Amino acid sequence: MSRTAAANHAAERIVVLRIPDWPVHAHLIERAATDGVSTDRAAADRAPSDGTAARQQRPAPIALIADHRVAACNEAARVEGVRIGLRLREAQSRCPSLATHPHDPAVDEHRFAPVLAALERLVPHLEPLRPGLCAMRARGPARYYGDEATAAGAILGLAERLGFHEATIGIADGRFAAEQAARAEPGAPGLENPRPGVRIARAGGSAAFLGPLPVDRAAGHDLAAVLHGLGIRTLGALAALPEAAIRERFGAEGVAAHRRATGLGAPHRPEILPRAPAREFASELAFEPPIDGSEQLAFACVSLAEEFIDGLADARLVSTALRIELTDDTDARYEHVWFHPRHFTAADAVNRIRWQADAMPRDVERGGAGITRVRLAPAHADRASAHEPGLWDSGPDERVHHHLSRAQGRLGHAAVGTMQLVGGRLLADRQRFVPWGTTAGTSRRGARRAAHARAPGPWPGAVPAPAPIRVFAKPLPVELLDGAGQRVRIDEDDLLAADPARFRPERDSSARAVRAWSLPWAVRERAWAGTPPRFRLQVQLESSEAWLLFHEADRWFAEGRYD
């Protein structure tokens, strides 16, 4: 395409809103909402009410870690030299006070959804590019507010009311140029700054603004390396090349990078692809006067639960994860995500409301007369057709679930459950009680911890397969004696000081002969907490019984028995 044709085919004006360090913002919002059972609205409900929690946490250096590398960090961490992509140890050496947390992309998307909803009420037809970044056409807002600068100020004002005071807006020809403008520093060449946080490239001036930027901004890693080898290091140098030559040499990827460098949009794609408006399935109910008892609250929420489930059913959806928000008359909010092995019914939702109300802390100093608002929202919805019974149904499983759920409804959430095998070193630590009708984690953070606990390792000192058939809930004291009748000890080389000859469990009058035994192996953990080292040993008796023992504080205990 010639330069004259390119000028006549300039991309439309685009507005890009960028919230820097969005994963850190999302992590702080999620932590405020899920860490404690009680969370003040002013501290936790920033999406989309206010930003107190993040502003209070912002001065502390924070980094989110994925695959042992920094995936995101805040400005306080960058001041200390932390950068995205650094290995965890290197980041901690640069900033010893760095607070590190695992990065969860699902949290980024989930917490960005209320921000998008608030923006759509101000400017419809926007396109989310990624969590923390969205684009919209400039023409409509500019005509409504009078000009682009005033429209940008209105959007930025909304972002500030949501608590994101670091947000920036870029306006330019084409989405790529607008995104680069939003990322630019104040006073960058080719940009106007009508107010703090707003960068505008004048119409037709996007190519001049993009020219000095590095070519890596528009090209992928491999293509950028080739262009660097050819001496093309800036977008201006790339834009100066004929598009036909770029197409012949680099194909579609090169043409796309060339069009970004020249400030043009994609040839077969509109600049903005508005997302479909999200339908709100949440239901809420307010009470005046407040309700204090959990039974009264559950009874009052029967119609709310039925309305919520019916709304999903009308859309041919079911909820497999339910978010319940209880707000008391002191404006404290209690939020919890409940999971279901199949999908929630109205009765299931009412039970969860009662259990959550029972678990609320009773802080006498805080005061308060009870719950003033209940809100139900699907944390995860699925197509109803995926949960329809099969041709022959699954009657026995449904009856078991029905009766256990009824017993749980009468006795309480934690009264009926199953055991789950998790990660760990000692056998007793590998058993976890899971209430019936839930998963191991009732929040995103709990689910991450449960997934980590189920991981196969590394668990140094763990028992190799096969595991003992019987595991003692409390380790059983035993005696392991040598040929002289003395207790077998562990020497300084972590080996048995003598060969085992006799074995006797506590409260057993007769000792049994030992036929064979394994080498002892050490289990060292939590040394900072003063936990003494343990040494495990497998022994086989003359009667063909096999036992798993461990030695701690000069005594022997039995963890389990192989039958």
From TrEMBL:
This is DNA polymerase Y family protein. Keywords: DNA damage. The lineage of its organism: Bacteria, Bacillati, Actinomycetota, Actinomycetes, Micrococcales. One of its GO terms (biological process) is DNA repair. Belongs to the DNA polymerase type-Y family. Residues 35-57 are annotated as: Disordered. Residues 61-129 form the UmuC domain. It comes from Leucobacter weissii. InterPro entries: DNA/RNA_pol_sf, Rev_trsase/Diguanyl_cyclase, SulA_CellDiv_inhibitor, UmuC. It comes from the Bacteria. The keyword DNA-binding does not apply. Poorly processive, error-prone DNA polymerase involved in untargeted mutagenesis. Copies undamaged DNA at stalled replication forks, which arise in vivo from mismatched or misaligned primer ends. These misaligned primers can be extended by PolIV. Exhibits no 3'-5' exonuclease (proofreading) activity. May be involved in translesional synthesis, in conjunction with the beta clamp from PolIII.
